[in-house]
Amino acid sequence: MATELRVTHVTALILQAIDAGFVYGFSIMDMTGLPSGTVYPAMRRMEEDDKLIRSRWERQAIADREHRPPRKYYQLTAVGRDVLETSRKRYPLIQRLIPSAEAKSV
Amino acid sequence: MIPPLEIAARFAHLGLLRCASLLVPARIRAEWSQEWRTELWYVLRECSTESGASPRPIQEATAFCLGAYRDAFCLRKRLWQKHSPLAEIRGSASLCLLALIALLIASWGIAVMSPGVRTERDLSKIRIHPQRLLDLRIASGTHDPAAAVEEQVPKSLGSMQRYFDGFSYYRITQKIVSSGAASGTRWTVALANSDLFTQLHLPVRFALKAGNAPDKLPRIVLSDETWMTEFGGNPDIAGTELRVGLLDGRVAGVAVASSQNFPGKVNAWLLQPNDEIRGDGAGFVVGHLTPYGYFQMGPRWAIPLFGVVLAFLALPGITSMALGDYSRDSQKPSKLKRLVCWAFLMAKMSLVLSFVYFASLDLDCSIVQPSSNFSAYTQFASSFVLCLFGLRWAFRDQQRRCPVRLRLMVNPAEVGQSSRTLLTWRGTELFCERGHMLLHIPDTPTSWFAAQRWVCLDRSWRLLFTGSSPEMN
User: Fold this and answer.
1) Domain boundary among B273, B295, B317
2) Residue B90 lies in a domain
3) What are the φ/ψ torsions at residue B17 (nearest 5 degrees)?
């Protein structure tokens, strides 16, 4: 069976950013330094094709309370976590670029 | 109060997002638009907080909104890939060859239909001798060589004077030729114009001096072969009297061996005034080309060939021709796979060269008339440029193809760290979509990493690809 590439550098960076607590589009852009035209299509592919992440909309009430529009949050799936572990081994630099939450707390 | 510029910018940004949303499939458009508008709000808030009253937020937000177009295109592309049968062969070697064949057929089709190229083709059918002689067969009974040439040479050539500086013609017949009391033998004799050899700039050996034979007998020029076989190569043959059929003639010399290339192999030429050449045998007009005529009507394939040779010489100056090293010899693909790679490269180059030939003809005929002074130059220039960039593409395409399955490598990414001392590697990394190879291309070639390098992916990479495991060689 033909296999398709699942993790590119961009994907690895985004997975690492989400794992590090940057869980919505603009914050991922900001953290990774990638442009919007790269981040959003990649996240769409990761969510819909590869099932590495999933998203949910923030409740309107919470957003209204803070006088801002509701945002779409992303989180890693179980598969996404496994892939992130493998990609960290392959690309150790990404952990230095975006330290994970545990690393920051140490 | 919000400044008018900011209000205008907000409208412009929302307009940009609205336009981009039109590219998105209708069933997901609402959610797509909501996400981008929401994110735009956060982008503006973040940038305003950081930069105060500067125009930076507007620029940032504009750049952000332009990214929405790429997102929309990607969505469209993903949908196409899900539903189109062509998606499976995207980036494959077969698609590449099919595209090249389609280009070749298109350029050939244009060449076939182009009137200029038809003229060119007619010219190529005319036989040209190395001595700048052109010969044409003419109908029986025609005695006017100029009329025959004009009838057969394409009209688009224009003035004949530019191409020819002499015409003559001859008609072939069989005659009994005898010398003195000896019995005659049957020769193939060309009844030719008196000035045949002068007009065609052909030398005659052992030529009879005018003062040595004051009589008015027709002159006979023997072919080199007949002189050797019938007269034993006698150097004093000039002046010998021969009877050709019912006519007496005097040998005026021996034609050079190259005259044997004329159509209708003859033993001798009987030179006569124009109006005395009679008979129904096959007639031939021979024209002598001027240097310009020879350049124009001579071997036309030589012009694009010259361009192609120059392009091959110039190619290393504009692209690297190395197809890549391997980090370890054990990672090299099998000999068969390497052979297939080379065959694929050769096939691409052959198709490119064929395309260059037809495309240069098409360009030549669409820019100038094939008979114009610039024709050869435009064909040379177009074949050189097309060939140079065509071959450059062929090599670059090959350098970006996985040596295992010949698919294009994908997802270029800058990796590594900048280093002034060049002790750490920095460059671009590409993946094979099927999980066979990584390709590392150095940003700055160094003594230890000069050319691009292939890295074979082992089974530990399997999780980075969907499906069970990548197809390893």
Assistant:
1) B295
2) no
3) -65, -35
pLDDT higher than 90, residue B75? no
pLDDT of B419 strictly over 50: yes
Q: Do B67 and A87 touch (CB under 8 A)?
A: no
Q: How many Cβ atoms are within 10 Å of B252's Cβ, its own excluded?
A: 24
B469 occurs within a structural domain: no
Can you tell me the mean pLDDT for B71-96? 81
SS3 B162: helix
B212 has pLDDT over 70: no
Angle value at C-alpha B395, between B393 and B401, nearest 5 degrees: 100
- Position with higher pLDDT, B78 vs B106: B106
Give the domain extent around B451: 409-464
Unique residue bearing structure tokens 């230095």: A96
Q: Is A73 exposed, middle or buried (0-12, 13-18, 19+ CB in 10 A)?
A: middle
φ, ψ (nearest 5 deg) of residue B138: -120, 160
CB A94 within 8 A of CB A87: yes
Cα A77–Cα B431–Cα A14 angle in degrees, nearest 5: 35
The answer to whether position B470 is within a domain reads no
Query: Which residues of chain A carry a pLDDT beneath 50?
Result: 1-3, 106
Sign of CA dihedral B4, B5, B8, B13: negative
Number of domains in chain B: 4
Q: In the prediction, which pLDDT does B272 show? A: 81
Question: Do B175 and B262 have their domain in common?
Answer: yes
> What's the CATH number where A40 sits?
1.10.10.10
Cβ neighbours of B135 (radius 10 Å): 18
Position with higher pLDDT, B86 vs A14:
A14
CA distance to partner chain B, nearest, from residue A104 (Å): 22
Q: CB-CB: which of B75, B413, B433 is closest to A4?
A: B433
Please indicate if any CB of chain A lies within 8 Å of the CB of B433: yes
